[in-house]
Amino acid sequence: MAVVTRGFPSRRRDPDERVPPGQYVTEDFPVLSAGPTPRIDTDRWSFELVSEHGERATWTWSELLALPIDKIETDIHCVTRWSKLATRWRGVSLDHLLAGVETSALYATVDCYGGYTTNLPLADLRGGKAWIAYEFNDRPLRAEHGGPARLLVPHLYFWKSAKWVRGLHLQVRDEPGFWERNGYSMYGDPWTEDRYS
């Protein structure tokens, strides 16, 4: 059962060039979840990267924070048609986690606490396009927004920025995640309104 908060009524598209077709700008940060909100303490949190060959690398919370940290200012766009402009995040680029990984994989499945998954092309996680984000607007990321850490892939619809992230499995084939198995697009480009399959 999905949990929906305010911010989802249909509205006219905003004329701002930063807003994709069919979207409206909100000042709120609406919450949409496919189930209950997991509560993960940072002393229990870890992130595991698994290659298509089964090789594993794991980072604890303190190990993640010891990596180079980026400040990200970006617009985000939800498939439910809201856009939030100039959001501020702090996180670790996936480029640091993927550095040195020998892989021929083209895709990744993102695993999350609570059982949620989503799929992404590996190219969309590299080149400064994706982060493990742990702060929003200069504060620790709240649990309802995916804290202690979520994936941040702002050039795609926000369901691809999976909340409560805990791992990444590299894959040679594209496998649908939770929302993709339930009718959402395999990719989710807001500029082409690539919402549903």
In short:
The chain has 197 residues and is mostly beta strands.
Could you walk me through the main structural features you see in this protein, from its secondary elements to its overall organization?
With 197 residues, the chain is mostly beta strands. It has a single domain (3-192), classed as Oxidoreductase, molybdopterin-binding domain (Sulfite Oxidase, Chain A, domain 2). 7% of the residues lie in helices and 33% in strands. The chain has 3 helices and 13 strands. The strands form 3 sheets. Strands 2, 6, 7, 10, 11 and 12 form a 6-stranded mixed sheet that branches. Strands 5-4-13-8-9 form a 5-stranded mixed sheet. The two termini are 21 Å apart.
Keywords:
single chain; 197 residues; mainly beta; 5-stranded mixed β-sheet; 3 helices; globular; OxRdtase_Mopterin-bd_dom; OxRdtase_Mopterin-bd_sf; Sulfite oxidase-like oxidoreductase
List the helices and strands and how they pair.
Layout: E1 3-4, E2 24-25, E3 32-33, E4 46-50, E5 56-60, H1 61-65, E6 70-77, E7 82-93, H2 94-98, E8 107-112, E9 117-121, E10 131-136, E11 139-140, E12 150-152, E13 165-171, H3 178-181
Parallel strand pairs: 2-7, 4-13
Antiparallel strand pairs: 1-3, 4-5, 6-7, 7-10, 8-9, 8-13, 10-11, 10-12
